[in-house]
Design brief:
Blueprint (H helix, E strand, L loop, with lengths): L6 H12 L4 H22 L7 E5 H5 L11 E9 L13 H12 L9 E2 L4 E4 L5 E11 L5 E6 L3 E3 L2 H15 L8 H13 L10 H11 L7 H18 L16 H17 L17 H12 L3 H15 L8
Parallel strand pairs: 2-5
Antiparallel strand pairs: 1-2, 3-4, 4-5, 5-6, 6-7
Length: 330
């Protein structure tokens, strides 16, 4: 028996409450403005110019979702050549000094809160709530002729964020059964991120970890995002029951080894398990058995913790009145 069809309502929810719409263009303008600010600041401080910039993170993967407090995170990679990053004595600039150099170049009287040096980036804050994270890299060719790219973290660490973006965007094309509205796998990732942010008290894994798990456990169902999403999160829950380790798909290295990440993955597993538990009041698995559409929509409402589904329930009730049983059809 097929799961009751709430695809139209889940799609309405996705388009109204999850997808970015016009904010996307604004975020792109912030990106360009900050690259210009950085370039001007480096020149003003007589520092070397960066050689390239890359989009990375959820901005590059097109998995950013609407945020009620406008807390959008735009990730930009700033690349310098290793030769450009030399100290006054000719030695290599440390990762911290490089981050400080970029942060100094980004200072601007227009900001109420000035950019700050964080462990893996320089963060630029906006009054509306957005922030731009500038990850700083250096590139060089090693003695074997390989091109090396390193992130300015607590030290210089090898890193290739573009590999993740390429991996994800390729998976979206290869695995999604459709071509429209960003393709299904990307919509499923965004729906999972929306749910993960649906309660303020929750402390959930990063968008990257959610994306990796979604791709790994993804069940494609043509024209049925509700069914695909349900089957994917159920598969994620079952996968985490047996194994809570998540690896970077491009190099196989574990990204959940720290206690902080372990706790967040445990939280994800616990909350997903709760959603399927009849004693906790939501019982998502009822979607597999109920034929009552109103009941199904109320389950989705509780799951996403969003009143949007109230209007969808009303629409279902209205259409039931408009299309009464037709006894004259035999």
């Amino acid at each position: 028996k097929e799961m009751i069809d709430c695809n139209k309502e889940i799609t309405n929810f996705y388009n109204e409450k999850v997808r970015l719409k016009d904010v996307w263009k604004t975020l792109g303008k912030y990106r360009e403005a900050n690259l210009t600010r950085l370039s001007n600041g480096l020149t003003k401080n007589s520092n070397p110019q960066y050689s390239d910039s890359i989009n990375q993170g959820s901005y590059a993967m097109s998995t950013i979702i609407q945020h009620p407090d406008n807390d959008y995170d735009i990730d930009i990679g700033i690349i310098f050549t290793k030769d450009a990053l030399k100290g006054t004595q000719g030695g290599d600039k440390t990762a911290l000094d490089t981050r400080k150099m970029v942060c100094e170049a980004m200072q601007d009287d227009k900001f109420k809160k000035q950019p700050a040096v964080l462990k893996n980036c320089v963060r630029v804050y906006y009054d509306e709530g957005h922030h731009v994270d500038m990850a700083i890299y250096r590139k060089y060719t090693n003695d074997s002729g390989d091109e090396i790219q390193e992130l300015a973290s607590s030290d210089w660490e090898e890193s290739d964020p573009e590999a993740i973006t390429k991996w994800f965007n390729k998976a979206v094309v290869n695995k999604s059964p459709d071509e429209n509205n960003g393709k299904q796998l990307r919509r499923i990732v965004r729906l999972l991120k929306k749910w993960a942010r649906s309660r303020n008290s929750w402390n959930m894994p990063s968008g990257l970890i959610l994306s990796i798990l979604s791709e790994e456990c993804y069940v494609s169902v043509l024209n049925r995002d509700d069914d695909s999403f349900y089957k994917t999160i159920k598969a994620i829950k079952n996968r985490l029951y047996f194994n809570k380790v998540v690896n970077n798909p491009t190099n196989g290295k574990e990204i959940t080894s720290s206690d902080k990440h372990k706790n967040k993955v445990q939280n994800l597993y616990d909350k997903l398990t709760e959603m399927f538990d009849s004693t906790k009041g939501i019982n998502l698995s009822e979607l597999e058995t109920t034929q009552d559409k109103k009941k199904a929509l109320l389950i989705w409402k509780k799951f996403f913790n969003d009143d949007f589904f109230e209007s969808q329930v009303e629409n279902v009730a209205k259409s039931a009145i408009l299309t009464p049983n037709q006894p004259w059809r035999t």
